[in-house]
Amino acid sequence: MLSGHAGEILGGFTTTLLLTACAFPLALVLGCVVAICRISPVRPLRVAGRLYVDLVRNSPLLLIAVLIIFGLPDAGVLIPLFWCLVLALGVYFAAYVCETIRSGVRAVDRGQVEAARAIGLPFRRVVLDVLLPQAFRAMVQPLGTILINVALGSALGAAVGVDELTLETRSFNLETAEPILAFAVAACGYLVINLAVSGVVRLIERKVRVLR
Length: 212
Prior knowledge:
Blueprint: H1 6-39, H2 43-57, H3 61-74, H4 81-106, H5 110-118, H6 123-153, H7 157-160, H8 165-176, H9 179-211
Helix pairs in contact: 1-2, 1-4, 1-6, 1-8, 2-4, 3-4, 4-6, 5-6, 6-9, 8-9
């Protein structure tokens, strides 16, 4: 009976992969911007960055998704539901990326930052050439965890109508009344993603250790 729904479940798994592949880079870019604001010498930028992180981290992902899905049309912006969910995931997990980057930056020896400033490097060059490359070593594992959480968070699509893995397996359960089989398949799908991400993270960590 599962074979008759294999196409739909595989399609849902593919959609989950696409959601993750689109949302994580968005979270990474937005998180970098917010992190730069948080460590900026300009006080209004620091305040804005902190407000963003505090507001988003203290809000459920579903609330962020609902605000985007219903708020954008009210503002006259019409985009497909898939991209609304991508935007919600990116906005939400950017706050966690920001804090990961900020923690990584704190791990860099302050003397190197002062030395970079002493030779006249502007703040932008200090961040891009001194802080971020070294901070990346401390960020690999946390960023991998965030990537896994993005994949798991994409299951929210089942609540808003995006045909991802959880929604397809739920539809399979409704048609066959086999909840254990249905959600065991979904669990295996997420497990595959998590194991793949964990493997890539280990490889990157090993390479970073060699470069040290």
